[in-house]
Design goal:
Layout (H helix, E strand, L loop, with lengths): L20 H24 L6 H8 L3 H7 L11 H13 L7 H15 L5 H11 L2 H26 L6 H17 L5 H14 L5
Helix pairs in contact: 1-2, 4-5, 4-7, 5-8, 5-9, 7-8, 8-9
Amino acid sequence: MTNTGTGTDSGAAAPAAPPGRRERKKAATRRAIADAALRLFLERGYDDVGIREIADAADVSTTTLFKHFPVKEALVFDEDAANEAALLAAVRERPKGRSIPAALREHALRHRMAAADDDPRFTAFLGLVNDTPALRDYVQGMWLRHTSALAEVIAEESGLPAGDPACAALAHFALEAPRVARGHDDPHQAITRAFALLENGWGSL
């Protein structure tokens, strides 16, 4: 049965089984590669660091590196899939009675706290992305993928047809709101105000 936007029921899902040794080892290898890549990129610039250098720094073969990261750009965004999964879960698993815009607002605020603008490492990461055309292009493609996936989930949860323009618009602006708030004197308030518009419309401001 289609969820009409009232959120999930109160039944608790069974806890996920802890990852096995093989999964933990793969995750640790992936993390080591991504950390080595980001460190080298920040030190010398994205275009001046080669794949073999990253593999050597992480103490893995280039074959192993490409198993985890099929393209160089993905090394900078190693949590892309996890971030998208968390975004979609924020809508699908929202508490009963919480609206979709409110669920997305809470997700955006949590994400903002985890990557605060005053974190020097995060600031350096943003600088790397903004100064590298290949990474800017990759981010745009990633952003469009997230928008499409989010719009699909919003439609499912709202009982609306796939491709509904209102769902696409909500997804677009929900993902744009944190970027608009970046650099604001009070990012928390900026995000909250942006989502108030999505929740209530222009006349409520």
